[in-house]
Amino acid sequence: METETTTARRPWGLPWWAAILLPLVTTAAGAYADMTFDHRLGVPFQAAYAGGCVLSVLFVRRRNLFGPMVQPPLILLFAAVPAVLVANGTTLGSSLASQALVVGTPLVDNFMTQVGVTIATIVLGLIRLILTRRRRPTAPEPEAEPVAA
Q1: Whole-angstrom distance, CA of residue 34 vs CA of residue 42
Q2: 58-93 burial string, b = 16+ CB within 10 Å, else e?
Q3: Section 37-66 average pLDDT
Q4: Which residue(s) pair with 60 in the sheet?
Q5: Which of 5, 23, 43, 109 could bridge to 52 as Cys pair (CB 3.0-4.6 Å)?
Q6: pLDDT grade for 95, boundaries at 50, 70 and 90
């Protein structure tokens, strides 16, 4: 008797939580390093932010692709802001106006980077969705029977 072994087909790519964690960690690390050495969010931060977001879109599972396509603004907010606060040593006792300036300035300065990264992730995600869609098998057309002459 022949035994059939079936292997469960596992989806290729990162799970949804890793697709969020990857750009979050790379952006926070880039922001902290850039704030520590250069005291502003410059090119190293922008490269870490863009790289993490693009890699997230390229390596996530297809069914989880929407989140990484639209997450760059949230990644900038939830990774860069805490890194700026930690690097600057801003305390909760500081005035609200000084905290707003410390937090808002890097976000405003990197707005065009955020727009570019968001557009890039959406375009890459759409390309990936189109290229990896499953095509339904088409039924072969019935052959016409030859007509006897």
Answers
A1: 7
A2: bebeeebbebbbebbeebbeebbbebbbebbeeeee
A3: 91
A4: 14
A5: 23
A6: confident
